[in-house]
Design goal:
- This protein is α/β, with parallel strands linked by helices.
- It contains 17 helices and 14 strands.
- Strand 13, helix 15 (379-384) and strand 14 (389-392) form a beta-alpha-beta unit.
- Helix 13 (312-324) runs parallel beside helix 14.
- The longest helix has 22 residues, at 38-59.
- The relative contact order is 0.11.
- Bound molecules: zinc ion (ZN) (2 copies).
Length: 442
């Protein structure tokens, strides 16, 4: 499975090097019923934003342009791209839009509709400049959020979105939180979390190398992390022995890899490579090495890669058994889902998260745009139980580290702040964290 998965992920265009490769990948329609991953839409938006704003300058240089809806809320799946233009002369813009060469726009009620070359539905609104911010706000949040906030205000014209929230007596709510999942109450009580940002990340845990199914060597991965990303540490978690299809490490190869890490750590100091493993969670919930080997790792990511067809009870107890293993540091991609490709195995989220809280196990937010697993809808529950989350690149090549950008978006949507994110810890803090987690060993 994992072997196919990686091929699949690569085929879908993540971590591809050239524009041409990326373009081909976008055109490769994986989307079921016009649904696309956020990462795919993000690339489409980059191009469309440029062509639309270039075009707008020629028609009305004072016009305003915004991308709204699911895209602006950083939803993991987008099935409709909504765009808004604010201008003085609506008729002029509307007439000229029919000649916009990058989209065949068809006029509908109070908007234009199109399907882009990749098959994504596009909805474009043209509004009076005076109403731009009201509409920018209206078309961004989900319907319930918008309704709740507007109930608190009389005024109709705004200079900014900030003004809308201010007049409603609320702290400003960033677009990714506007889902009516308690954020309005938090904003009212000035209790919104200070959301994590990419610059808060100090390292990347859970990554692969040529020791298992990665494309770049351990040293290349570590040096990229140090030099190009300016991180303080790097966690290597190649596959464990049962994952034969992914060149999973035999016990001998684990020990040989750890020798290489010792050498590299001398060379790269003060940068640090942590010795990890992505241990398969076997069918009965045990990990894939005997205790004397598990003991040699600084940390262990425990993940399910095989026998994915389980009912909820079986999947939940399999995960909980692994969570209760004192060597488990992080629960990897908790449901195994591949967005738009296959649903995860069903789990009882509350039971799994509660078990992580009880056993001080961190939960991964796998940053691969196909996974984004743990789903953001469960982040707040996990945080409320005192569980730490970790934004893990699961990089199989150096470019894969950039997926952490998508992990950050998902984490922000879930309400994560930097102090609750394991890989925002400094080298010193995380060293201490691993040592205290592993304290039972001595
Ligand atoms: Zn995995
Ligand atoms: Zn992995």
């Amino acid at each position: 499975y994992a072997c196919n998965e990686n091929r699949l992920i690569e085929a879908k265009g993540f971590g591809l090097k050239t524009q041409e490769e990326i373009k081909q990948a976008i055109e490769f329609k994986i989307a079921a019923d016009g649904k696309f991953l956020y990462a795919q839409v993000n690339l489409m938006v980059a191009n469309l934003r440029k062509s639309l704003s270039d075009w707008l300058v020629g028609v009305d240089k004072d016009a305003q342009l915004g991308f709204v809806g699911q895209y602006r809320r950083c939803c993991e799946i987008v099935d409709e791209l909504e765009i808004i233009i604010g201008a003085e002369q609506l008729e002029k813009i509307a007439a000229q839009l029919l000649n916009f060469e990058h989209l065949s726009l068809i006029p509908a009620d109070d908007f234009f509709l199109a399907t882009n070359a990749s098959g994504l539905k596009v909805k474009l609104y043209v509004v009076k400049k005076d109403d731009f911010y009201l509409n920018y706000f209206k078309y961004t949040g989900n319907a319930a959020h918008v309704q709740q906030v507007l109930k608190l205000i009389e005024k109709q014209h705004f200079e900014s979105e900030e003004e809308i929230y201010e007049l409603a007596g609320l702290d400003f709510i960033v677009p990714e939180l506007r889902e009516n999942l308690g954020e309005i109450e938090l904003a009212n009580q000035k209790q919104l979390p200070k959301l994590i940002e990419y610059k808060d990340l100090k390292g990347s845990l859970h990554n692969h190398s040529t020791w298992s199914d990665g494309v770049h060597t351990l040293e290349e991965m570590a040096v990229f992390c140090k030099e190009s990303l300016q991180m303080e540490y790097f966690g290597i978690c190649d596959h464990s022995k049962v994952a034969v299809y992914a060149k999973g490490l035999s016990i001998e190869r684990v020990l040989a890899q750890q020798q290489e890490i010792n050498t590299l750590n001398k060379k790269l100091s003060p940068f640090k490579i942590f010795k990890g493993i992505e241990s398969d969670i076997l069918n009965d919930g045990t990990l894939d090495y005997p205790e004397e080997i598990l003991k040699t790792f600084d940390f262990v990511v425990a993940s399910v890669h095989s026998n994915l067809r389980m009912d909820e009870e079986k999947a939940t107890s399999r995960l909980i058994k692994a969570i209760e293993n004192p060597y488990t540091t992080i629960l990897g991609h908790p449901t195994g889902r591949l967005l738009l490709t296959r649903p995860g195995y069903p789990i009882d989220f509350k039971k799994v998260i509660d078990a992580c809280a009880a056993n001080k196990v961190v939960i991964e937010i796998n940053a691969n745009p196909l996974r984004l697993d743990l789903d953001w809808r469960w982040h707040r529950y996990a945080l409320d139980q005192g569980v730490l989350l970790s934004i893990n690149a699961d990089a199989h090549r150096t470019e894969g580290f950039y997926d952490m950008n998508y992990g950050i978006l998902a984490a922000r949507k879930g309400g994560l702040s930097a102090d609750k994110c394991l890989n925002s810890f400094t080298l010193e803090e995380i060293t201490e964290y691993f040592e205290s987690k592993n304290g039972f060993r001595v």
